[in-house]
Amino acid sequence: MPRQSPIAFKHDRLRAGEPLRVLDLFSGCGGFSLGFDSAGYRIVGSLEKDPRASQTHAYNFFGITDPDDPHAAARDAKKVRPGELVRELGLDKDGANRAVDVILAGPPCQSYARVGRAKLREIANNPDAFLHDRRGRLYTELVRYVRALKPLVVVFENVPDVLNQAGVNVVEDICADLEAAGYVCRYTTLNAAHYGVPQMRERVFLLAYHESLGVEPSFPSPTHWIELPEGYQDARRAALGPTLRTGSTDSNARYMPTPGPSGEILPAVTAWDALRDLPVYTLSMKEAIRPGPRRFTQNLRYNQGRPTRFASLMRHWPGFEGDRTIRDHVIRRLPRDYPIFARMKPGEQYPHAHRIATELWNEKMEALGLKASDSDASSPNRERYESEKAKVVPPYDPEKFVDKWRKMAAGEPARTLTAHLGKDSYTHIHYDDDQARTISVREAARLQSFPDGFRFVGAMNAAFRQIGNAVPPLLARSLALHVAGEVGVTARDRFAPAGMALSAHSGDGASDDHVVAASTPSVEADA
Ligand SMILES: C[S@@+](CC[C@H](N)C(=O)[O-])C[C@H]1O[C@@H](n2cnc3c(N)ncnc32)[C@H](O)[C@@H]1O
Fold first, then answer.
1. Residue 322 pLDDT more than 90?
2. In 249-261, which positions are buried (b, 16+ CB within 10 angstroms) versus exposed (e)?
3. How confident is the model at residue 245 (pLDDT cuts 50, 70, 90)?
4. Max Cα-Cα span within the chain
5. E strand or H helix that includes residue 118
6. Segment 481-493 mean pLDDT
7. Which SS3 state, helix, strand or coil, does residue 312 take?
8. Pick from 163, 165, 220, 213: which is nearest to 190 by CA?
9. What are residue 177's phi and psi, to 5 degrees?
10. Which atom of ligand 1 is nearest to the CA of 27?
11. What is the mean pLDDT of residues 16-21?
């Protein structure tokens, strides 16, 4: 009897009620994976080049602590063949192309992210430049994996700029390749704040369903609502420019307008909803921070009081329940800037910070007996003037670094977190004037909707980078539930037995018996 095709085999498996098997390419620490896991999919493996991120994925999804385990091993997508990966992960019992039902892929976006403006200028002068950027071409690895492993569903995520690389829409190129391989493709932009994530993070999502499913992909409606600030709307318009000009009126267009609100909808989850129960950093805690790599050695207790519904979800996420303490509430040591943070108002950026620093310097100059004229080259106090000033005023030009800093507003979702958090975290200054600091690793994780029981391998910078790179799990979860409905699988929602609503609404804080008293232990750094 001829052997059944891999696609027919997968349809049989689904009819038998088995969970969809997911391979996460460019998995990072696993934000994308976590959303699908929560919706009842089975994460069977990942591909990731960064050793700490791949170890984080292995620990959280397979309970693996051995860095040499095949699940924890770092691999380069350009070097490893799909069949090889599946074999190494021990998934080839029925043949490599029968192992996986769903491929997730969020390739790195450095080559087309908005942060790379200099690079984009270069691209504008030479429209093909990004094609020569090796990271920009990583999507071709995705297509190679899809051709070889024949999943039923592909979900791709990236920055909105991928829609407009000097007029080139990279997602259309991916769609064309996937269609040639037998998939029906649709894409749109979604904002995480509209899916219960306390962060306004705009990303492109492409859904591709194998044509044998007979379904045209669509995208989930928002569960939460906030009107996005102008900057986000402008960025969306700029990214979509070429797509709307060339595709939207074509009946075959793969672009779908972003789903709008309909029916009952909750207000977006705010930064305050997300962070309020996390331990307060006192001045003495900040002073106890030593220079050097920051590791997660200190257990801190939650603040007293009833956690919001969102915080409760983060504490009790099935399979990732936190305990009574958190270990990764570590922050950067920035003694020069704490007084500036304290005086900044919500939403203020670097030019304001620089102005405040100048005020602080004027006050300090007086106390030190220095004068503005001491900055003159001829002044005998010049050296002292410059060295004292450097202790108060940051050196960056306020005209050039406008959005380098930003103080968060408690009453709205945070602005986009990026991998740059691994280098500095000035884009997310805590809204609390008394704490006057940048956000901690656990706070960044909360703002991405990672549950408190999700562990990050590596010290502070590595963890920040993994978090900033991730697809917010709650947004991924909305997509996962929606896809399950469209392809006709009954998702075994992990939240259902616990009666946990997808809602992360703050309005009716769920009661929580794990609330314990706040403490103020010092925070050590392992140098
Ligand atoms: C945007 S992040 C993906 C985040 C992930 N989707 C999540 O939700 O956590 C891109 C990841 O691709 C990884 N990467 C970059 N180049 C790679 C390559 N050649 N092979 C495998 N992984 C790579 C990076 O280390 C990074 O973790």
1. no
2. eeeeebbbebeee
3. low
4. 95
5. helix 117-125
6. 92
7. helix
8. 220
9. -65, -40
10. 5
11. 93
Q: How confident is the model at residue 526 (pLDDT cuts 50, 70, 90)?
A: very low
Structure tokens at 76: 């380069």
How many Å apart are CA 94 and CA 86, to the nearest integer? 11
Residues 315 and 346 sit within 8 Å (Cβ to Cβ): no
Domain with CATH 3.90.120.10 in the chain: 269-346+406-469+505-527
User: 68 CA to middle of ligand 1, Å?
Assistant: 19
Average pLDDT of every residue of the chain: 88
List the one residue out of 127, 208, 107 whose CA is nearest residue 169: 127
For domain 269-346+406-469+505-527, the CATH class is: alpha beta
CA 105 – CA 448 distance, rounded (Å): 18
Q: What is the pLDDT of residue 135?
A: 47
Could you tell me if 98 and 18 are in contact, meaning their C-beta atoms sit under 8 angstroms apart? no
Which atom of ligand 1 lies nearest, measured to the CA of 473? 8
- What distance in Å separates the CA atoms of residue 437 and residue 417, rounded to the nearest whole number? 16
Helix, strand or coil for residue 154? strand
Chain position carrying tokens 């992360």: 504
| Distance in angstroms (rounded) separating the CA atoms of residues 361 and 391 | 9
Q: Measuring from each residue's beta carbon to the nearest atom of ligand 1, which residues come in under 6 Å?
A: 26-32, 47-50, 53, 76-78, 106, 108-109, 138, 469-471
CATH 3.40.50.150 domain extents, the chain: 6-266+470-487
Q: Which DSSP category does 497 fall into? A: T
27, 206, 417, best to mutate for ligand 1 pocket (most atoms within 8 Å of CB): 27
Ligand 1, closest atom to CA 106?
6
Which CATH number fits the domain 6-266+470-487, given the four candidates 3.40.50.150, 2.170.130.10, 3.40.640.10, 1.10.1740.10? Answer: 3.40.50.150
Percent residues over pLDDT 70 in the chain: 87
Give the DSSP letter of residue 412: S
Q: Which residue(s) pair with 185 in the sheet?
A: 208
Q: Dihedral angle at the C-alpha atoms of 471, 477, 483, 488, nearest 10 degrees?
A: 150
443 three-class SS: helix
* DSSP H/E element including 45: strand 42-47
Cα distances (Å, whole numbers) of residue 360 to 268, 286, 346, 408, 501: 36, 20, 19, 21, 47
> What is the phi/psi pair of residue 22, to 5°?
-115, 130
Q: Is the pLDDT of residue 263 over 90?
A: no
Q: Quick check: is 185 catalytic?
A: no
Q: For residues 293 and 387, give the distance between their C-alpha atoms in angstroms, rounded to a whole number.
A: 26
Ranking 2-6, 59-63, 156-160, 178-182 by mean pLDDT, the lowest is 2-6
Q: Are 392 and 357 in contact (CB under 8 A)?
A: yes
